[in-house]
Every structure is written in C-alpha cells, then in structure tokens.
Amino acid sequence: MLRMSTLLLRTLRDDPADAEVASHRLLVRAGYVRRIAAGIYSWLPLGYRTYRNIENIIREEMDNAGFQEVHFPSLLPREPYQETNRWSEYGPDLFRLKDRKGNDYLLGPTHEEMFTLMVKGEFSSYKDLPLSIYQIQTKFRDELRPRSGIIRGREFVMKDSYSFDIDDAGLEASYQRHREAYIKTFNRLGLKFNIVSAMSGAMGGSKSEEFLAPCPTGEDTYVLCENCGFAANVEAMVTKVEAYAGNVPPAFEVFDSPNTPTIDSLVELVNNKFGENITGADTLKNVLLMADGQAIAILVPGDREVDLKRVAANLAGVQELRLFEEEDFAKFPGVVKGYVGPQDAEALGITVYADPRIVIGSHWITGANARDKHARFVTHGRDFTVTGFVEAAEVKAGDTCPQCQTPVVIDRAIEIGHIFQLGRKYAKALGLTVLDQNGKAQVVTMGSYGIGVSRAVAAIAEQTHDEIGLNWPREIAPAQIHLVAAGKDGSIFEFAEKLAKDLEANGLSVLFDDRRDSSAGVKFKDAE
RNA sequence: CGGGUUGUGGCGCAGGGGUAGCGCGCUGCGUUCGGGACGCAGAGGCCGCGGGUUCAAAUCCCGCCAACCCGACCA
What we know:
The protein is an alpha+beta fold. Helix content is 27%, strand content 27%. It binds one RNA strand through residues 10-20, 28, 35, 37-38, 93, 141, 143-145, 147, 152, 198, 210, 220, 415, 418, 450, 452, 484, 486-488, 518-526, 528.
C-alpha cells in the first residue's frame, strides 16, 4: 500500500517553466519525474510504478508470443561496433568514453551487434532457428536536440527484439509474429495507434512499419486517409496519377523571361506575355542534387518543393544526397542557375528523374538552359526523357489516397514502435551463419523490433490526460484505487484504514491518502 | 549547427550601481476543517561561471557555460 503520509511526492501548483508539451508538464507537476540534465530524467515513486506497469505489460506480451528475454550491458566495448562500421557511422550521436587504460567504450544506442554475437556464440544449426530474443534496456543517444520531456531523451528505455531465421519466408513469419504481438501490446496499453508503412519497398528497401500514436504534439508527420484508413509515412506515400489525356502540344518555344527568379514571377510573366491563365502547377521545377557525387536533376511541378527525405528513401542505393552548391554549379558550366530545363540534360551529363506527376505526354513551362530564357510546350517523351520516376515532391494535405482516391490529411503522431526486416547486414558483418540441411553455411537473416518503453509513458499521458490532469488507464495507473480519507473525525481514518486493507486483500493496489494535516481540498487536487 | 528566449531560495516570478524581494512550498505555535484555509513567528540565496570597470556590481562591460522553444538533424 502506498501512503500519502510517507510517499516521496511533492506536487507543484505551477507549470514548470521548461515544459511545453502536456505529458512533460503533467508528469513534472504530479511528481512523477524530475529533470537531471537535458533529455535525462529521474523517476519518482509514482512515476516509476507507472513506468513499471507499462514495462510489465510489454514483457508479458513478448513472453506470450514466445520471445525470450535476455539482458546486455549498456556499457559496451568498441570492437563489435567497429566491425559493423557503426563506430564511425553513428557519428556524434554515439556516447563514447574511455576506460583507465585508454580503451574505447560506448553507451549502447541500440544492440544489433550484441544480439547477433550472442546467437553466434551459442547456435550453429538451422535446427536452432527460428529464434526471437529481446531485452528491456536503457539506451543512450546524444541527440542534437532532446525535446518534449521524456518523449525524446538522451537516455531512454527501449524494448528491442531481434529475430533470427534461415530464409526470407522465415523472416516474414517472425516479422508477422512481432507485428501481432505489438498490436496486442499497444491495445493493452490503451494507446490509439496507426500502423504506417515506413518505406516504399518499391525500390528494394527492406520492409518496415512504424506504430504511430496520433497526438497533436507528436513530432512525426504522416499521411492518413480518413475514408479507408490508409496510413503512410510521408517517405512511403505513393502518388496516384492519371495518364496524360490532353492534346498534343505545339512545338516547344523559347521566350525571353528576364527577372523571373521565382516560380511566382515566372507565372506572372507568362500570363502577361501570352494572355494565359497558368499557375505554378503548370511550370516545371528542376532541382539539382548530388547523389553520392553524381549530378542528378529532379523534376517536380513548380507549385511543389522537393522533399529530400522522400527522394533519398526512394532512390535505390543512394547513401548521400544533398543540394547543388556553388562549386557544383562551377563543374557544370552549361547549367544556368535559375533557368534549368531537362531538354539538354544528357548533353550536360546529368541524370534526370521525375516525380510521377510529370507524366509522359504532359507539357511544361521550364528553363531553356540560357540566361533570361524559358521555354513552353516542353513535352515529356518528345522534348526530354527521364531515367526513371521517383517519389520526390512534398506531400500535401488533400493529395489523393493511393487506395481509394479520397483526399488525405496530414496528421502528427509519436512513434511508439518500429518493426523492421533487417536482413543479413549484421549477420554478414559479424559472421553469423548456421549450417543448413546440406551442411552448408548460410548467413542468418534478421528482423529488429523496437518499442519505446519510457516514451510510451509520455505517449499514454498525451493521449489520455484531460483538462484537470493525468488520467491513466487502470492497468497503468500507479495504483488501481486512490482512497482519500477526508474529515476531522478519527473514526473516518480508522474506517478508511480498514477499507484500504480490505481492498488490498482483494488484490487491488491502493494509494491511500492518510494525511491528517492536509485539508480535503489539497487531497482532492493531489488526487487529480 | 543556425535563429529566438532565459539563467535570482525547492517551484513560479519581480528587482536592474549602495540592507536581495514576492507568491507557492517548507518548520513551529494557534485557529480552521469536503475543493489547493487563516494568523503569528521562522528556516532557506556564491543572483549560471570567469574576468573587468567602480569607493561600491545581482545590476554596467567582455568572455564562457547551461537550459528551453523554432528549424536543421535523428527513427
């Protein structure tokens, strides 16, 4: 039984000055958490009980699904991470330290290497697979900007699972088992969530889905169709287009267009010059990028920006993608900044990709690759061709749902889980193989599956709180019963004491406000 | 890393060259006792850190650090 008379708890009347989002504000005011440093928090008794209730639900569901719990250190040696190249790849987000002998260590941001090595150390036969193991462990990431209280901290608790299979069909089955277990888990946690495809897969990316808990303060944006339930990460949103049905345009025509640095100024000039009534959507924007050192052009309608994340996610095999800089323009003297068009790309040595909206047969107003000149009736398939289509334009509310053609909305959410078919990257790098039926070594294929445990506390708080305060689902609350003894007569306290004990005897956890020196008002406010 | 804001008792804030203040919380005594009670008496401060100007710095100047918000980044 928790007794308010002795509980390590001090509620605050005022919102803390450094808390913005509801979960942070309320968790601090209610005496659940305290900040220790940027993105690092302590849990007080009420908070820790809540946290543990959530952790236990997750653990139960993992165990129910047949996954086995293990535990790794947080403090890890450099070598395994060196072998997979993440010691350098992870960059400044990795907390690094040295021991007294000067050897390099790190605080684990995620544990793929350790799981892989654990299995490698024990198992060596296809008969041992499939296997799924998990841990609940504190993770460390030196985020550039921790924010939103415990939603994005530098130290946080994550449940991470890994599956090990001999082939792709096995991986798919393990993936589906985790997916089912996650659905059960989040339902029990009382979270509203959408399962969102995180990569298009169209270009060979591994299968990956995110579990997103919708809430206005979430930091992830995603696309949602309120009609059919389609949900996708913006990177994975697929553009629906119709084949070009207009007339065959006249031959393309170059015209003078001085002082048109922006799409708006170009539209105004064209409308004045030709008596047209076009919009930015009739112009073609050519955005030049460097993809792993190679110059590429991305074509999007002039009324849309290029979303670099979408391009990167949908261009197969590209590691580094960035905008053209001045020195890049210097290397391509034929490229006239502000007057780029796709007509001469081949001669200029630039590979061209188009957003799907640039359908074959459509014609556009675009740069003429000469200073102060644009061209119109520039037609895809006649006046220029592209190497391929790639999802590139920013996604906007009102875009068409790829499943049911309804206009979609853009929604915000907290990422509470992520499931991912990793494949053989880590097994290959660390030499995890098993012998198959033929006695031949096979590289194991892996899946990785994460749930933000501490983040779930915040996500549930965000979704369930009301104007008055925190409002936990029963299974998660620090206690199932909050019993308040209010009054001056000692018999009230005696009765309440007995009632509290009876409730506990019947298997209910009780937070008993047995304070004799607090007014009823204080007790009610604290309860809330 | 760019832009913005802020650092003063545990929390929320005021003060802006000469005795460091208010509200909440905390301690003691008394009154009150069902929606954050009241009175009286108290405890609690390197005014973010370092340097400078000055007879005198929380306050002015220089430098640094930290936190928060927006963005970039991150999944």
